[in-house]
Amino acid sequence: MKEPQNNTRVRYNLYLSITQAEQLRRLFESGLTISGVARLSIRKCSNMLLEPDTPAPFPERFNFHLNLSDSEVLASIANRENCPKAVALRRLIQTYITINASALNQLF
User: Fold this and answer.
1) d(CA 104, CA 91)
2) How far apart are CA 41 and CA 45, in angstroms?
3) pLDDT, position 107
4) SS3 (DSSP) at 26
């Protein structure tokens, strides 16, 4: 669904593991934007219990934008999980990719 033009966007920087970055690049090659994956992760996985962040280093940096409502949901998830928004979003993205792994793998 297309977002309204006057909807304010919030810019985020997120550091991901090499594996997560590769997964997002594959999704980008299939036509999804990094911002789109972040929004889907927030909207589809916000009510799920999130697995703890992996201890892997996070050397890959991504920039993306969220609208205010998704940014507020992300903030509430981070508060619920008692972690920074970046950690919550990494966990949301990983949950989204894990849940949809078979469908995502069929894209390639």
Assistant:
1) 18
2) 6
3) 63
4) helix
Tell me if 97 sits within 8 A of 23, measured CB to CB: yes
User: What averages of pLDDT result for each successive group of 10 residues across the chain (108 residues)?
Assistant: 62 90 86 90 91 82 93 96 93 90 70
Q: Which amino acid is residue 99, in one-letter code?
A: I
| pTM as predicted | 0.82
Maximum alpha-carbon separation in the chain: 39
| C-alpha to C-alpha distance for 85 and 15, rounded to whole angstroms | 12
> What tokens were used for 7?
């909807």
Q: From start to end of 1-108, where are the E strands?
A: 9-16, 60-67
SS3 12: strand
